[in-house]
Amino acid sequence: MPSSTDDVQRHSVHTLVFRSLKRTHDMFLCEQGSLPPLDPNVDRVRRMVKARDQYGAVLNLVNNNRRRAGSHPGPPDPDHLPPPTQDIPNGSVAGPLALPQPPPAPTPPPPSMAVVASAGGGGASAGQQSLVPRRAPTLPRPKWHAPWKLARVISGHLGWVRCVAVEPANEWFATGSNDRVIKIWDLASGQLKLSLTGHVSAVRGLSVSPRHPYLFSCGEDKQVKCWDLEYNKVIRHYHGHLSACYGLALHPTLDVLVTCGRDATARVWDLRTKANIHTLTGHTNTIASVVCQAAEPQVITGSHDFTIRLWDLAAGKSTCSLTHHKKSVRALALHPELYMFASGAPDNIKQWKCPEGKFVQNLTGHNAIVNCLAMNREGVLVSGADNGTLYFWDWWTGYNFQKLQAPVQPGSMDSEAGVFAMTFDQSGSRLITCDADKTIKIYKEDDMASEETHPINWRPEILKRRKY
Fold first, then answer.
1. Where are the alpha helices (H) located in 82-143, listed in sequence order?
2. Hey, which of 111, 238, 402, 435 has its CA 20 to 30 A from 205?
3. pLDDT band at 265 (very low <50, low <70, confident <90, very high)
4. What is the three-class DSSP state of 194?
């Protein structure tokens, strides 16, 4: 018995393709030549409406460029076409064809083109604009920085060195330690010049006034002292903190001192009258760092409650609380030239833009408890951690161009490799660090290094969008 497939007539591929073409031709025949010819006016109106609808935003620019180049004028401008007429069956001609004119909509240009003002004029008219290719977004390449190396190790303290401050004339620097002594060192030779005693507990903060011969210190004994460097003795005490004082900062233009500590407050003092002008409350845990600047926000604090607060110094109130960090904020550093600052925490280092505290970018990779930050005018940001590591970053791109491990003083344990405080000198060419092995280390740039010996090995993972 024959199968059902034998009843199907088999055809060649050529026959099947021809049949498919014929069916396609019959399907679209009505749209091609079988219809009566269109009225030229109606076809012109249809093209005009289509051009204005789809290319209205750039049609005038294209026509003007063609006329300016002296080439073929191209399609007529829809805004200057004569009004079309409509034929009436009895042979008379009606008036202009009334077409509704849609309001001009802000149609965006094609993705690869951008409308910009021409170089010849500063106006925003269509005659002064041209079409230019839009550049693809590019990521700025990090600036090359010379690597840093250890230049000098200074010993003299009998406890952890917790704070450092450089004199404005760049001749000496002061350090405070857990041995309750403030020592002043010659910056050029590293020799000890003076020891100041008076604190009864660890000294945690130091600052040298640029306008007065005063040195300010604070410590875990809740005391804030003002030292007269002409007599080398304490001339003022600022009483008010209820617990250990962990940091202080001098206002750059006002005679104001701001201190912070374990009582979760930052206190603003008048240098001369010793009055407590403001008590800045709002943090819920220890305030570990404070910085001051001349512009708003004039006071910035970082706390162990994972937040950064920006303060209005005149009102004595918090204007903004930044909650981006997920760990304790132990370090803050102001950029010496830009209106920005950085914050350091065990999760990462973040950059912020003043005055509203706008987040800029993360600097990730320093996976340790970041205790301190320092910044110089060359765009080098340094972070120091509890495990003795120093990370050097390019400020603009966040590129980590060097990692250093601070060597431990002979006779100390490896666990005593922490970096507690650091600062650049006034020239930005020396980095002074305070370590847990009771030493002070001074780093400088390697003069023998070049871009060939230490190339930039930069591999960005994602495109960072920065707004300055």
1. none
2. 402
3. very high
4. strand
Q: Show Cβ contacts of residue 454 under 8 Å, excluding neighbours closer than 6 positions.
A: 146, 147
Q: Give the β-pairing of 299-303 and 265-270.
A: unpaired
- CB atoms near residue 280 (< 10 Å): 23
Contact 287, 312 (CB under 8 A): no
Query: What does the block give as tokens for 467?
Result: 């707004």
Q: Would you say residue 290 has pLDDT above 50?
A: yes
214-219 and 203-208: which strand pairing? antiparallel
- Which fold does the domain 148-445 belong to in CATH? Methylamine Dehydrogenase; Chain H (2.130.10)
The residue extents of the domains of the chain are 17-88, 148-445
pLDDT over 50 (residue 116): no
* β-bridge mates for residue 166, sequence order: 173
Predicted confidence at residue 137, as pLDDT, reads 59
Are 422 and 382 in contact, with CB atoms under 8 Å apart?
yes
CB 380 within 8 A of CB 391: no
Is residue 128 predicted with pLDDT exceeding 70?
no
pLDDT tens digits, one per residue of 17-35: 888 888 888 887 766 555 5
Rg (CA), the chain: 37
Query: Positive or negative, the Cα torsion across 113, 115, 120, 122?
Result: negative
* Cβ-contact 205, 248 below 8 angstroms: yes
* Predicted TM-score of the model (pTM): 0.71
Q: Which two tokens stand for residue 95?
A: 């008036």
